[in-house]
Amino acid sequence: MSEATTETARIADQLRRAFEGEAWHGDSLFQILDGISAEQAVSRPIKSAHSIWELVLHISTWDNVCRRRLLGEALEPPAEENFPVVADSSKAAWRHALEHAKHQHIELVKVVEAFPDSRLGDKVPGKEDEPAYHTFYYMLHGLVQHELYHAGQISMLKKLV
């Protein structure tokens, strides 16, 4: 890792580690997803829980939402985008879902790296009526936590399928 010199560079590094690898805690999201088949991803070993596939789509949605918020959009995803339904459970659709997740992540990291530290304390667009702590700094650190939380869920589901 190169020495990060800005806070946004450090946050981008944490997002990369959570998603791509070299995370302090262990395997990253994509290390956990490695080798999971479409059949495994769509299965529901815990009937009341989301599938691995649904969690990947959910993570992709929130990477996109946070990227767009950093670019100034006041955005709240509709319920059908928050946890999208898996309509096509083919191998090709699973590969597409994984590539889409990678693409959303890469685009998010680019925007985070370019985001000025001086704006980290600004309120997130559309969150002006939320508590004062709902800043870009809060959102970005929350997003790292979000990816790791769902990576842990996926890790447990992977053991069950």
Q: Uncertain segments of ≥5 residues (pLDDT<50)?
A: none
Shape: globular
Number of domains: 1
Using only C-alpha atoms, the radius of gyration works out to: 16 Å
How many helices? The count is 7
Helix-strand string: HHHHHHH
CATH class: Mainly Alpha
Average residue pLDDT: 93
- Give the tally of β-strands: 0
Task: Classify the secondary structure makeup into a structural class.
Answer: mainly alpha
CATH structural architecture: Up-down Bundle
Structure description:
By secondary structure, the protein is mainly α. The chain has a single domain, classed as Four Helix Bundle (Hemerythrin (Met), subunit A), CATH 1.20.120.450. Helices cover 59% and strands 0% of the residues. The protein contains 7 helices and no strands. The protein has helices at residues 7-19, 29-33, 38-42, 52-70, 79-82, 91-114, 136-160. Helix 1 (7-19) runs parallel beside helix 7 and helix 4 (52-70) runs parallel beside helix 6. The protein is globular. The mean pLDDT is 93.
Structure described in brief:
The chain contains seven helices and no strands. The chain is mainly alpha-helical.
Topology diagram in text:
Layout: H1 7-19, H2 29-33, H3 38-42, H4 52-70, H5 79-82, H6 91-114, H7 136-160
Helix pairs in contact: 1-6, 1-7, 4-6, 4-7
Features of this protein?
161 residues; mainly alpha; Four Helix Bundle (Hemerythrin (Met), subunit A); 7 helices; 59% helix; globular
